[in-house]
UniProtKB/TrEMBL annotation:
Name this polypeptide is given: Amino acid permease-associated region
Organism placement in taxonomy: Bacteria, Bacillati, Bacillota, Bacilli, Lactobacillales
Residues annotated as transmembrane: 12-33, 45-67, 100-123, 129-147, 154-177, 197-219, 231-254, 282-310, 331-348, 354-376, 391-409, 415-435
Gene3D superfamilies named in the record: Amino acid/polyamine transporter I
Gene Ontology terms for molecular function: L-amino acid transmembrane transporter activity
One Pfam family recorded for the sequence: AA_permease_2
Organism this protein belongs to: Limosilactobacillus equigenerosi DSM 18793 = JCM 14505
């Protein structure tokens, strides 16, 4: 007999919450802070615009491919659950371990790090305040998510609406009042960091990353077979259009060499130049809110992966990490675990490097998921598919080629960082062995 008293996550999230989480998670720091990096590596304004579009298409093909899997496996855990169901416990564990030890904390730390740059400027503080402000913000948003899941989802809706104000302002002013040609500007100076088009695309993928996180809430969506693919595909398409327009707006307002010279301050400079000191501050406040929404989306989702792994007794302290608050049914201790790791990473890693490495690491497992569509269709040819990837098999093939492109580009760009992050993932294997021996011996 089923024990109805066992704590469980609530299926209370609808389409508005789902697509707001996707858009809110995607539109964060990447589009505002990666303009200089993308442009410098691409080498020209035309190639920079193409890099943002190309990165979006890679993301879209990946979203269309994973949406087919997600509609068949509407479970809490997302990528972790998909990889386990397709490839077995070992690879499933590694994908979950990667998300909770490397990718999740790293991406929260990197977004918070970028956000704190704006916060320091906004409040007129010294650079020594960047990490403390980032930590305080992450803890505050984490505390919000210890309430009922609808509270965090509502915050995603509010911040998604709020972030559209600075986005629309930048697009309208840049395109309407800019005096430069967005196409055809060539870089006259390139630094030693110039890595080529592949690294430029890799930088855009940090801006697009997060689309799969809604899958981690599969156990909390009202109708996951229908809502999951709608939220993933619809959200990605909207974000591609927004990112392309913002890039064009920035390039029309400032020459290419000035954008690369300003680096992560390019969009902030546009805001101040366009709207004056007060208007620039208001616009910066909107961007800060945007990033808070991104952090919120990630803090909503990654503790669910911790929760799903702990339920399977795949990680230490499983009983503790599966604890849900009596009223809100929120994974409070799993949330605290993710926040703790993110805080540690803020002190240990450079924000920009961290963003590239976390994208590389997750794409290793994205590739496994992309191949998984072919495996599932062969394994279960007659199984009903609530959502089928359009233009099969070409869309999954493109997503696979895109994933390979990302991995090779980052290996060439930062082999030492790649080795560190891959090593951290592999360390999970002996930990899994010890944990299983412990639980079997009880």
């Amino acid at each position: 007999m089923k024990n109805t008293d066992t704590p469980h996550l609530q299926r209370s999230l609808g389409f508005t919450s789902a697509i707001s989480i996707v858009i809110g998670t995607l539109i964060g720091s990447g589009i505002f802070f990666k303009q200089g990096s993308v442009l410098e590596n691409a080498g020209s304004s035309s190639m920079a615009i193409f890099a943002w579009i190309f990165g979006g298409l890679i993301t879209l093909t990946g979203g269309l491919t994973v949406a087919e899997i997600g509609a068949q496996m509407p479970e809490t855990g997302g990528l972790y659950a998909y990889i386990e169901n397709i490839y077995g416990r070992l690879l499933g564990f590694l994908s979950g371990w990667m998300q909770i030890i490397v990718y999740g904390p790293a991406i929260i730390a990197s977004v918070a790090g970028f956000m704190s740059i704006l916060m320091v400027n906004f409040f007129g503080l010294g650079p020594e305040w960047k990490i403390p402000l980032a930590v305080i913000t992450v803890i505050g948003i984490g505390a919000l998510n210890l309430l009922e899941n609808r509270v965090g989802a509502a915050f995603s809706v509010i911040t998604t609406i709020g972030k559209m104000i600075p986005i629309i302002a930048i697009i309208v002013f840049g395109i309407g009042w800019g005096h430069y040609d967005a196409l055809g500007q060539t870089m006259t100076t390139l630094t030693h960091n110039h890595g080529g088009f592949g690294v430029a695309v890799l930088a855009t993928l940090f801006g697009y990353d997060g689309w799969i996180l809604i899958a981690s809430l599969g156990g909390e969506l009202k109708n996951p077979q229908k809502l999951l693919p709608q939220a993933i595909v619809g959200g990605i398409l909207i974000v591609i259009a927004i990112y392309t327009l913002i890039t064009i707006a920035v390039l029309k307002f400032m020459p290419a060499n000035q954008i690369t010279a300003l680096g992560d301050q390019a969009v902030a400079h546009l805001a101040t130049s366009a709207f004056g000191p007060l208007g620039g501050k208001l616009l910066s406040a909107g961007i800060i809110i945007s990033m808070m929404g991104t952090i919120n989306g990630k803090i909503i989702t990654f503790p669910r992966v911790v929760y799903a792994m702990a339920k399977r007794q795949d990680i230490p302290f499983a009983k503790t990490l599966t604890y849900l608050t009596p009223k809100g049914k929120s994974p409070v201790l799993a949330t605290g675990f993710i926040i703790l790791l993110a805080t540690i990473m803020m002190f240990l890693f450079d924000t920009d490097r961290l963003s590239d490495l976390c994208v590389f690491t997750v794409y290793i497992f994205y590739l496994l998921a992309f191949f998984g569509v072919f495996i599932l269709r062969k394994r279960n040819p007659n199984q009903a598919r609530p959502f089928s990837t359009p233009l099969y098999p070409w869309v999954p093939i493109i997503s696979i080629l895109g994933g390979i492109f990302v991995i090779i580009s980052e290996i060439q760009n930062d082999p030492a960082g790649v080795l560190l992050f891959v090593g951290t993932v592999v360390v999970g294997l002996p930990i899994l062995y010890l944990v299983k021996r412990y639980y079997q011996g009880k």
